Amino acid sequence: MFLRLSKKDIAPARFKAGLGFFLLFFSATLIVIVLLVVGLRKELAEAELSEVRQQLDTYLEENNPSNLRFGPLSFTGRKLGELQFIKFIRGNDRLLLAAENLAPELLEELLHLRSFEEQPWFQPSTTHPELIWAVTTKELPNGVVVQAAKSSVSSYGLYQDIRSKAGAITIFGFVIAWLLALFSAKKMVLPILQLHQELETVVEQGRVRLQLLNDPGNELETLYNQLNRLLEQNRRLIDEMRDSLDNVAHDLRTPMTRLRSVAEFGLQEGDDPERLRGSLADCLEESERVLAMLNIMMNVAQAESGAITLDTQPVELLESIHAMMELYDYVAQEREIAMSCTVAAEIIINADAIRISQVWGNLIDNGLKYTHENGALTIGSRLDEEQVVVSFQDDGMGISPVEQKRIWERLYRGDRSRSEQGLGLGLNYVKAMVEAHGGKVWVESELNKGTTFYVSLPLVKSDNLKVATEQ
Ligand code: ADP
């Protein structure tokens, strides 16, 4: 993709992002340039030195150095070919053979030139800076040390040229490295910029899906999918909350109209205090019903949307069922229903103690309500892998297969149950709460024979596995 740099791309933040890339690119360029310059210098120097060595060897071959005449200071002007000078050193004696074109004042300097191994670009005199020589030194078998030099101005010029060009290339590389760094930084943040833009469009247009980039790459594709899941989850939550709100408003309309009618009825017939008192009492009862409905419906809505906060803790199953049975004991005795419990001891579940008690309460209440007098309600348990299944079995009126499908609905009441008091919210609450606890609830029933409700919940621990399974 072709990238163009804009003002934003040279902003300090992007500058910082590009710094790493710059250091990488620039140091790579620098290393290449330095290696090149060092390599070329070595080649040039080597060529110069081998040239001067060769010329010295040729000279020595052609002129026998054994019969040299040394004196404290001996100068001999000779034809030396390309060599600038040859100096023979034996102890304190020196013999200097200098090229004819050498300036006389240089000869003295050359005589006292310190002896060193080899140098490709040596400046023999500060007064003659134009002179650049390749100098070599060698020791002859008879102990005489020979030093010779040839001009290396042209190769030195070439080397200087290469150095200044390398400098220029370094500056050029600096600029290119910065541009490359900015492009790379832009390319790196580009998907984020696109995501940012896409999110803005989604918010503006009220969409619920992000359009995937052509090729977002693995990590980004996961991010896009996660964001899409989040958006969908939010939308579902909002829809569910809106539905719940609509339903609650709709469901409350009937009792509120009833409340209003009772109040109107009380006001219609003048000032009869008895009548007014009766109407007010009815209003109070009705409003309490509405409040109870509202509470249950709000709890169910919260549980269904996943917005409920359960205060979960280890709960001893038998203990929490016993507590609820005690509350309903009076009702059972009044209706002469034999209420019994075979739930195994020491089964621990992870639950919100209050809400799970309300679940037991609703199921016990129904069991007692919809069972004939002298009937029986048995509460039992069995373990099923990691679950405990609690059953509430009565031998009452039963539920028809058609009704079985509807009993979990909000405000549903069976036709044959109208004689009993109820809001039609009990099972709706039971289902929502059990599911919020990660459990399941189901029913088995036969008309006029009886009904069993089952609640399965994740198990924390059972020390009494054998007993529970047997039951
Ligand atoms: P309510 O008991 O207030 O009517 P529920 O939601 O608790 O509301 O129950 C919904 C319906 O399911 C009841 O009206 C009744 O028809 C049926 N039902 C619940 N439990 C039993 C039961 N143990 N035996 C027979 N029918 C039952």
Describe the 3D structure.
With 471 residues, the protein is an alpha+beta fold. Helix content is 54%, strand content 19%. The chain contains ten helices and 13 strands. The strands form two sheets. Strands 7, 8, 9, 10, 11, 12 and 13 form a seven-stranded mixed sheet that branches. The chain has a six-stranded mixed sheet with strand order 1-3-2-6-5-4, with helices on both faces. Helix 1 runs antiparallel to helix 3 (153-205) and helix 5 (273-305) runs parallel beside helix 9. Bound molecules: adenosine-5'-diphosphate.
Topology:
Elements: H1 12-62, E1 74-77, E2 83-90, E3 93-98, H2 104-111, E4 118-122, E5 133-139, E6 145-151, H3 153-205, H4 218-268, H5 273-305, E7 312-316, H6 317-334, E8 338-341, E9 347-352, H7 353-369, E10 376-384, E11 387-394, H8 401-406, H9 426-436, E12 440-446, E13 450-462, H10 465-470
Parallel strand pairs: 1-3, 8-10
Antiparallel strand pairs: 2-3, 2-6, 4-5, 5-6, 7-9, 9-13, 10-11, 11-13, 12-13
Bound molecules: adenosine-5'-diphosphate (ADP).
Compose a concise summary of this entry.
The chain is built from ten helices and 13 strands.
